[in-house]
Design brief:
Elements (H helix, E strand, L loop, with lengths): L4 E10 L2 E11 L3 E7 L5 H8 L7 E6 L2 E3 L4 H6 L2 E4 L11 H8 L9 H14 L15 H14 L4 E5 L10 H13 L3 E6 L2 H7 L2 E6 L2 E7 L5 H8 L19 E9 L6 E6 L3 E5 L6 H9 L6 E6 L2 E2 L5 H6 L2 E4 L3 H4 L7 H5 L7 E2 L2 E2 L1 H15 L15 H13 L5 E5 L7 H16 L3 E5 L3 H7 L2 E6 L2 E6 L6 H9 L3
Parallel strand pairs: 3-8, 3-9, 6-7, 7-8, 13-20, 13-21, 16-19, 19-20
Antiparallel strand pairs: 1-2, 1-4, 4-5, 9-10, 11-12, 11-14, 14-15, 17-18, 21-22
Helix pairs in contact: 3-5, 13-14
């Protein structure tokens, strides 16, 4: 059988950067094809070419054996190629039904609503993701919104679905549901491209795995023949990263950060503290108040009730600038939305809020470049071009830029929301090692993560947030997925 979609001799350049030089990539009927690689390997660029978002500088694309030119995403969809991005395209105020109907093609002027609802419900049940159609989409969890995005593609007639880092937004409990949906799509003859940097995911659900490195596909393996060690070696040219041991106990000082009975619009009577030299882990399903907790500590939100303290001093009314100048570093959930400016260069983003780079009426650019290079080197990251606009980088590389900038200031308090989200294995381990090193030097670290294994590995203590309240606290001796997971979802 002809592949559902096939790309040959694809070349894509952004200025001097060769983002893709792909000899061949194909997706067959009834397969989940894993596209694996470290950050910046070219995975998303290749997928955006297949979806018509980018135009290749050379090469050809065939759909069902026929040579096609995919100039726009609309043309891709007309050929049955759909893509679910990391940032969803739902309309929050509209219902689930309305979001799906808006995406469907060739609907009559007067909608046969009852028939459409039956059709949507049937497909949702077949794919193992039933949902209430009248609920506003914006009120749903990230996992449920992702299901809407997949349903939109299927009901609009897509036969090839490209999923860009689909597990990035999911809580651990939601992974099983997504993997079940992928199995149902495979069984019904769809072709699925699963873009990821997580080896366990492709080894669990992919039929074939293409490994990308520096814009090229360096290997294609059947899942039965693939191993974690082998895939790592392919991703990193044999330089396999080794996870450090958890390490011995660190000495801890006084309370660097403390919340006493703090309430905001989203947080209720929250009390917690982090000592100097301590890593406090924060677990919770999506939407439990993690983002609001980060905003509260970083200063963009002030307590309505209660007290925010830094080193024992009441900082409830401190400005963001004063909090940052006191030594608080912040890695937000969505760096490109909150922590940086996409139109500015990497080097310019390093200067944001930094007085030390001022030189007369200008900026000491040699110092900026030297500090940026040193910050990337300390984390073991390959630095991107410092003059490149940040918006041209992959999501993982944007995360690297923010981590390098924030940790490069030798902060006294670090608030990190999902700092390894979107990072490849080596980069994620480098971030974990850096957080440990910062704590060993006396920094207080508050770490929010969706991965319980990561929290268990790094945390000296662990708290659980649920609906804006503290739902549990655990010492390392009590770290267990069953216990922590039960606190996350209120199961006794």
């Amino acid at each position: 059988m002809e592949p559902l979609i096939e790309a040959r001799h694809i070349v894509k350049r952004f200025g001097e950067l060769v983002a893709n030089e792909v000899e061949r990539f194909e997706v067959r009927t009834g397969e989940v094809h894993g596209l694996l690689g470290e950050n910046g390997a070219g995975k998303t660029t290749l997928s955006k070419i297949l979806y018509g978002f980018y135009q290749p500088d050379a090469g050809e694309i065939r759909v069902g054996g026929a040579l096609v030119r995919i100039a726009t995403p609309a043309q891709a969809r007309s050929l049955g190629i759909g893509m679910v991005f990391q940032e969803f395209s739902i309309v929050p105020a509209l219902s689930v039904f309305e979001n799906i109907a808006l995406f469907m093609r060739a609907l009559p002027a007067v909608l046969p609503r009852a028939a459409l609802e039956r059709r949507i419900a049937e497909v949702a049940d077949e794919l193992g993701m039933p949902m209430a159609l009248e609920v506003p989409a914006g009120a749903l969890s990230a996992g449920a919104q992702q299901k809407i995005e997949i349903l939109k593609q299927v009901l609009a007639g897509m036969r090839v679905l490209i999923l860009d880092e689909p597990t990035k937004v999911l809580a651990p409990q939601e992974l099983t549901g997504l993997f079940g949906t992928l199995a149902a799509l495979r069984a019904r003859g769809y072709g699925v491209v699963l873009i990821t940097h997580k080896l366990r995911e492709v080894l669990e659900v992919a039929d074939r795995i293409s490994v990308m490195r520096k814009g090229r596909i360096v290997a294609v393996q059947e899942r039965a023949a693939a191993t974690e060690a082998g895939l790592l070696a392919l991703m990193f040219e044999g330089r396999v990263p080794l996870a450090d041991a958890r390490g011995g106990a660190r000495s801890m000082g006084g309370k660097a950060l403390e919340l006493r009975g703090v309430s905001t619009d989203a947080l209720q009577q929250l009390s917690l503290h982090v000592r100097e030299g301590e890593i406090l882990g924060v677990a919770g399903i999506a939407g439990s108040g993690q983002r609001e907790l980060g905003a509260l500590i970083a200063g963009s939100t002030r307590p309505r009730r209660g007290t925010r303290l830094l080193w024992g001093e009441d900082a409830s009314r401190w400005s963001i600038a004063r909090i940052r100048q006191s030594g608080v570093a912040f890695v937000p959930e969505n760096p490109l939305e909150i922590a940086c400016v996409g139109e500015l260069s990497v080097a310019e983003n390093f200067t944001l809020g930094e007085r030390r780079y001022r030189s007369g009426l200008g900026i000491d650019w040699p110092r900026v470049h030297a500090d940026a290079q040193a910050a990337f080197a300390r984390l073991g990251f390959r630095p991107p071009p410092l003059n490149a606009a940040l918006r041209t980088l992959s999501g993982g590389n944007v995360q690297r830029v923010v981590m390098a900038r924030e940790l490069g200031k030798q902060p006294r308090v670090i608030v990190a929301l999902y700092p390894t989200r979107g990072l490849d294995v080596r980069s994620a381990q480098a971030v974990r090692d850096s957080l440990r090193a910062c704590a060993a030097q006396g920094a207080a670290v508050l770490l929010v993560s969706e991965e319980l294994e990561e929290l268990f590995e790094l945390s000296d203590r662990l708290v659980v947030l649920r609906q804006g309240r503290l739902a549990g606290e655990f010492e390392p001796s009590a770290f267990a997925p069953e216990a922590v997971g039960a606190a996350m979802v209120h199961v006794h």
